[in-house]
Amino acid sequence: MAQPVLVKNLAIGEGQPKIAVPLTAPTLSGLEEALDQLAECPCDLVEWRADCYGPIREPGSWKAPLALFRERIPHLPLLFTIRTAAEGGNLAISTEAYVQLLEEAMDSGAMDLADVELSRGSQVMERLVDRAHRKGIKVVGSCHDFQKTPSREALVRTLCAMQDLGCDLAKYAVMPQTEQDVLTLLAATLEMKEEHPRTPVITMSMGAMGAVTRIGGGRFGSAVTFATAGPASAPGQLPADLLAQVLPRV
Ligand SMILES: O=C1C[C@@](O)(C(=O)O)C[C@@H](O)[C@@H]1O
User: Which residues lie with the beta carbon below 6 Å from any ligand 1 atom?
Assistant: First the structure.
């Protein structure tokens, strides 16, 4: 079994999959309201989708939201994510600007985990992993395919590549076109758990067809499931309160 990743008091990769709630509000006041809603929902960690934040292109604009999270949810691990347009997110950004933004935010130390997209290249990943680790921040390597589901072999290869590059967790979100694709994602997840347990992985098959993976993925080895307490950040996410009631024990 992969060693769990310890963040605050949370052991990611041990026991039940952890529920991550993404915050996607475009304004600071919107984020404050989202935090109010969060108070009533079962949530193990919070993802700030900083690419959804209106002012994110302005230098240092991330400081106010990070300070807000520090103040309001100091007990919850925070995952900082810039989901670029190339990976289905809201920010079209050069690799240079992506690295600069992540490095500046990491240097503030005001996050527990940082999402780094593999598609920006191995060198970028290694550089950002090093920068994050020097600040005690864990890295979630990530990869997204909003069109299709790669083969099981390709999924495993990519997840292993993220492990090789030093990521603490390796994440892959894919879109199924058929039910068989959902099984492919689960088979790759199980293969990672059984044959490549160097780090925990996070996987999901998106959309309504893949929603089953957000409930049952933990059995196959997925360590985190993303769920809503407000707007969804990807298709197929289920409400966190519902999910918490039905998540099977692993
Ligand atoms: O990478 C992921 C997974 C995700 O795309 C999902 O399908 O739940 C949601 C994103 O917010 C997160 O960064």
Answer: 22, 47, 49, 81, 83, 115, 142, 171, 173, 204, 206, 226, 233-234, 237
**Within the chain, which residues score under 50 in pLDDT?**
none
Q: Is residue 239 part of a domain?
A: no
* pLDDT tens column, 186-214: 999 999 999 999 999 999 999 999 999 99
In a domain, 2, yes or no: no
Residue 40 within a domain: yes
pTM of structure: 0.98
From 53, 142, 145, 204, the mutation candidate for ligand 1 (largest count of ligand atoms within 8 A of CB) is: 204
- The pLDDT value given to residue 149: 98
Q: Tell me whether residue 75 is one of the annotated catalytic residues.
A: no
Residue ranges making up the domain that contains 92: 16-231
Q: How many domains does the chain have?
A: 1
CB 45 within 8 A of CB 54: no
69 residue type, one letter:
F
Cα separation, 70 vs 93, whole angstroms: 27
